[in-house]
Amino acid sequence: MRVRVLLDEQLPRQLARHLVGHDVRTVQQEAWAGLKNGVLLSEAEAAGFSVFVTGDQNLEYQQNLAKRKLGVVVLGGASNTLEDLLPLVAKALDAIDRVQPGQVIRVTA
Prior knowledge:
Blueprint: E1 4-7, E2 23-26, H1 37-46, E3 51-54, H2 59-62, E4 71-76, H3 82-85, H4 89-98, E5 104-108
Parallel strand pairs: 1-2, 1-3, 3-4, 4-5
């Protein structure tokens, strides 16, 4: 099932092409760079995104995600470089398929 996925701005934009089978857009493509997390999540929901993929390890502690209409996938690579995130792609794709609105799934090696 194709899912609308928003890729957070601190993740490399090149990661989007590796999340195959989904409609992936970046925060930069949506012209939302620099928005605070709460505003960003609200904009993403309003635009019809189902999943937010981020490297922000603290997002779930800073935001009340339980009432959100989108699911969050947190990538935990050694860094946010493409080289460190590519090994997580298979698990990330599985998480994108499984995450429910208001849920957080952490993906690590």
